Amino acid sequence: LGDINTAEPGARAGFAGPNIIEQTIRQKLPKGFQRAEFLLDHGAIDMIIPRHEMRDTLASLLSKFTNQPEPGSTLEPDVIIGPDATDDPAFAE
């Protein structure tokens, strides 16, 4: 299992701020550098979720990854059925 990186719209992510980075590398950074939208476009995060949708979106993702119904759902989780035990020669009469 991997990880999912999310951010709120317009969020800035990074260890040092853009001014520090520009001074360190002596280059101008691209517009929007370290902002969620830039990071999404460049594969550093997987999705941007507005704060008011965060709880429902994360609950939905977790339900998919754990094969559980979403909170408040009346649907049963998918059931993965393995091979029928009666097909196994060890169970033959």
Q: Helix- and strand-based class? A: mainly alpha
Order of secondary-structure elements: EHHEH
**Mean pLDDT score:** 80
In percent, how helical is the residue content?
A: 25-40%
Strand order, largest beta sheet: 1-2
Strand content: under 5%
Overall geometric form: elongated
**Poorly predicted runs:** none
Distance between the termini: 40 Å
Number of helices: 3
Radius of gyration: 23 Å
The biggest beta sheet is recorded as: 2 strands, parallel
Q: How many domain units? A: 1
Strand element count: 2
Protein name: CoA carboxyltransferase N-terminal domain-containing protein
GO molecular function: acetyl-CoA carboxylase activity; transferase activity
GO biological process, one term: fatty acid biosynthetic process
Domain CoA carboxyltransferase N-terminal: 1-80
Account of the 3D structure:
It is a single chain. With 93 residues, the chain is mostly helical. The chain has one domain (6-91). The chain has 3 helices and 2 strands. The chain has a two-stranded parallel sheet. 2% of the residues are buried. The model has no long low-confidence stretch (mean pLDDT 80).
Comma- or semicolon-separated keywords:
93 residues; mainly alpha
